TrEMBL record, chain A:
It is found in: Cell membrane. It comes from the Bacteria. Keywords: Cell membrane, Membrane, Transmembrane, Transmembrane helix. One of its GO terms (cellular component) is plasma membrane. Pfam families: BPD_transp_2. This is Branched-chain amino acid transport system permease protein. The chain crosses the membrane at residues 26-43, 55-71, 77-98, 105-127, 133-152, 194-214, 244-261, 267-287, 294-312, 318-345. It is a multi-pass membrane protein. PANTHER family: HIGH-AFFINITY BRANCHED-CHAIN AMINO ACID TRANSPORT SYSTEM PERMEASE, SLR1201 PROTEIN.
TrEMBL record, chain B:
CDD domains: TM_PBP1_LivH_like (cd06582). It is a multi-pass membrane protein. It comes from Actibacterium naphthalenivorans. The keyword Phosphoprotein does not apply. Signal peptide: none annotated. This is Branched-chain amino acid transport system permease protein. The chain crosses the membrane at residues 20-42, 63-86, 98-117, 138-158, 186-208, 220-248, 260-277. One of its GO terms (cellular component) is plasma membrane.
Length: 360, 290
């Protein structure tokens, strides 16, 4: 195979059996949405733009969970642990290194790598111990809760790494934002238009990259494992390695969310790993439709918007509504509400098509 | 003499850790071992037991009756949850985790909205006694006794009563039990109710020693999970020995490095145990027997 054709066949992985949405209709829709997202800052004030960046920050964690849970079939409740580890790592690194020479970008990469490393160690014990889905959920949740308690008790002055105080329950603040070194003055990425476009670009790259990943050999094997681990093993695949791989990639994405969030607000607290925080990603992904990247993306974005407006109008009831939404989704639309809608629409259009053919 | 005092101190700490592990986990273990359902709303049944028993104590009920009331209230709540949410999901065990977590969110936040951020406790009864230089709470010793009594009562219930035998039959081969005329739906409902009632009992027993806040369930969760994971699916061959082992680890680390080290130790222990014994202690024992 020549080099060019190998490259095009690699690019073709962006469509495939493991993702909804193929053909020109889907991609023109994708282009319209992307165009709308790109022109959004022209119509909105800078507060709304910054707020949208906040939404974007969470989508990486949701996509990662979709890969682990939806495609891999292993339910992890502990994604916020990686979120918190990366957030704190970014804080400690940038407070110590400063924001010159693009060192914040180095810190970003390091923080994501640290969370991926932590995921690899934890995942080794979990997957190579061959524990099943139920136990995976509760062990990862336990790890998250203990990490939260650990960070919450670091208030004393003895908890300091270099120049960075961990500050216990009050959380760590005053770390520099992401900064791009640029001739003629560094570009500091405050929650504003520049950061908006950068996060959007990152999101599109991650989304398309994950689409390619799940349609590649790796993704197909992962889905085979989800459908029937024993059969996949009998066919000669090392189930543990694939599950661990998905877990590390998904957790690194949670870490990316953590870094972006910490840089966005210059702030991270232990509560971002707690019980409430840990439950929200499950709600987003389950409601949207965990077994597809696009429905996860759409569902997460919608749930985030609804959750924020609920928090503004009836602050206390927002979490109750989220819990209800989760229970109802599991009982009525176990594949996710967005997925159910997509299936409903495609069924209707199929019926109309077949009816039209009958008339002819 | 000094040596004997420190031995007593260690034994007391071990007993305390053991009682906490057994009481906080046995409800979870009954539901998981019998039904294969991990109940993430376990902490909220504990919360229910704690709040109901404390309110009952405030109304003048004597403490044992108040605790029983809390346990019964949690049991009834459990049967309602089983009927409304768990029953349609038996074919999808992973989804029950998600659904019970939804319930947990609703209850925690609902309690916060309805009853406020905290509730006045009832105070630890019975006072204290002293051995050597340290003084110890009598109520904690009562809790240790209650843990052993609970295990014994569960053992009697599952081996000697008609309900226990029907429950074990249902769990082993549901279809055969059903064919022989057992109302398996009722058994599932009662088993879930029993698990919830045990959680309520833990809440009622520990309510006098803690501050009552809507998120108090979470403070039981790590210990309960860890015990069930290390123990495996059987309550007597799993949960009880796991509580002994983990109690020893926790007591040793707590007296050496403080309470937080105890918790980290538990977590590390559980991760290592998973690698060596994926099906827990009871899985290991039952496999060797078979």
């Amino acid at each position: 195979m020549s080099r060019a054709s190998r490259f095009t066949s690699f690019l073709k992985l962006v469509e495939g059996p493991q993702t909804l949405g193929n053909g020109p209709k889907f991609w023109s829709g994708f282009a319209v949405v992307l165009l709308a997202a790109c022109s959004y800052p022209a119509f909105a004030d800078s507060y709304d733009v910054g707020n949208n960046v906040y939404f974007f920050n969470w989508l990486f964690m949701a996509l990662g969970l979709s890969l682990i849970w939806g495609y891999g079939g292993s339910l992890s409740f502990g994604q916020t642990a990686f979120f918190g580890i990366a957030g704190y790592s970014y804080g400690v690194l940038t407070i110590n290194l400063g924001d010159a020479y693009g060192l914040t970008l180095f810190s970003l990469v390091m923080a994501v790598a640290i969370s991926a490393l932590f995921a690899a160690v934890l995942g080794y014990f979990l997957f190579f111990g061959r524990i099943n889905g139920v136990f995976l959920g509760i062990v990862s949740l336990s790890v998250t809760l203990v990490l939260e308690r650990f960070m919450a008790q670091t208030a004393g002055p003895e908890w300091v790494i270099g120049k960075a105080r961990l500050n216990g329950f009050n959380g760590m603040g005053a770390m520099p934002s992401l900064t791009i070194p640029w001739p003629g003055g560094n570009i500091v990425l405050y929650p504003d238009i520049t950061l908006y476009y950068l996060t959007l670009a990152l999101l599109v790259i991650v989304y398309l990259g994950l689409r390619m990943l799940v349609n590649s050999r790796f993704g197909n094997v992962l889905v085979a494992i989800r459908e029937n681990p024993l059969r996949a093993e009998m066919l000669g695949y090392d189930v543990r390695k694939y599950q661990l791989g998905a877990f590390v990639i998904g957790s690194a994405l949670a870490g990316l969310s953590g870094v972006l969030y910490t840089s966005w607000g210059n702030y991270i607290t232990p509560a971002s790993m707690g019980m409430t925080a840990a439950s929200l990603p499950i709600v987003w992904v389950a409601v949207g439709g965990r077994s597809d990247l696009t429905t996860t993306l759409v569902g997460t974005f919608l749930v985030l918007i609804v959750f924020q407006s609920l928090t503004i109008h009836g602050s206390q009831y927002a979490l109750v509504a989220m819990g209800l939404l989760l229970v109802i989704t599991v009982l009525i639309a176990p594949k996710g509400i967005v997925t159910a809608l997509v299936e409903f629409v495609s069924k209707m259009s199929d019926r109309r098509k077949s009816k039209a053919e009958e008339v002819r | 003499m000094e040596f004997l005092y420190s031995i007593f101190s260690f034994l007391y700490q071990f007993g305390d850790a053991f009682a906490f592990l057994v009481l906080s986990s046995c409800g979870l273990a009954v539901i998981f071992g019998m039904m294969g359902v991990i109940n993430l709303a376990h902490g909220e049944f504990i919360l229910c037991g704690a709040y109901v028993s404390t309110s009952a104590a405030h109304m003048g009920l004597p403490l044992p009756l108040a605790i029983a009331a809390g346990s019964i209230a949690a049991g009834i709540a459990g049967m309602i949850v089983e009927l409304a949410v768990i029953r349609p999901l038996y074919a999808r065990p992973l989804d029950t985790i998600v659904a019970t977590w939804g319930i947990s969110m609703i209850v925690t936040q609902g309690t916060l909205i309805v009853l406020g951020t905290t509730m006045a406790g009832s105070g630890t009864p019975f006072g204290s006694f002293s051995v050597g230089a340290y003084s110890y709470s009598i109520y904690r010793v009562v809790l240790m006794v209650m843990a052993v009594v609970t295990l014994a009562a569960l053992w009697l219930m599952f081996t000697k009563t008609r309900f226990g035998i029907l429950a074990r039959a249902t769990i082993q081969v549901p279809h055969v039990a059903e064919a022989l005329g057992v109302n398996t739906n009722l058994i599932y409902s009662l088993t879930f109710g029993l698990g919830a009632a045990l959680a309520g009992l833990a809440g009622g027993l520990y309510a006098p020693t803690m501050t009552l806040v809507p998120t108090m369930g979470a403070s039981f969760m790590v210990e309960a999970f860890v015990t069930v994971v290390v123990g495996g699916a059987d309550i007597f061959l799993g949960t009880a020995p796991a509580a002994v082992v983990l109690g020893l680890i926790k007591a040793a680390l707590t007296s050496w490095k403080g309470q937080f080290a105890g918790q980290i130790g538990l977590l590390v222990a559980v991760i290592i145990v998973i690698r060596i014994l994926p099906r827990g202690i009871s899985g290991k024992i039952l496999k060797e027997r078979a």
